[in-house]
Write a structure and sequence with these properties.
Layout lengths: L1 E4 L6 E5 H16 L9 H15 L9 E2 L5 H15 L3 E5 L7 H14 L5 E5 L14 E5 L2 E6 L1 H10 L14
Parallel strand pairs: 1-4, 4-5
Antiparallel strand pairs: 2-3, 6-7
Helix pairs in contact: 1-3, 2-3, 3-4
Amino acid sequence: GLFLAFQYPHAVPGVSVAQFLRSAVNAVRKARNGGEDDPISVAEFRKDLTAAMEELKVPREMTSRYLNDGFSGGEKKRVEILQMAMLKPRMAVLDETDSGLDIDALKIVAEGVRKLAGPDTGALVITHYQRILDYIEPDFVHVFVDGKIVESGGPELAHKLEAEGYDAFQPEAVGGAS
């Protein structure tokens, strides 16, 4: 039930996106079925994959390419969101999903996260920048400094961080000494 999207996803030459996704879907199905094999049929997998790709605006030819091999930053992140859609985790941890994305790719990836997160799937979005939060409105924002949460709040906290920087959240600035 836990999905992790990496800041810098690794390439896997020789394994196509479709092969990887079908193997991953089958592994999740087996785990959810108490260890019993319950492989997804090719027809059902293609139907689910095609629907997810259309929903997330992932080009069809992407699935025949080797996983992340020669992909741009935006392509890697789109494929990760596609993985999230196919695996349907209970919780997704997205580590700097906005890293290396141009504005068009950022919008597409953020829209995908917004569509997938909800009552059945939680999302923890780790970022250093406000820009992805312009497209994904968070329920909660936590500011980390030196590995510790120094302040928590709603979306307005991200705007404060963007305007004032991390210096506003240093112990001296928030009324305490270290």
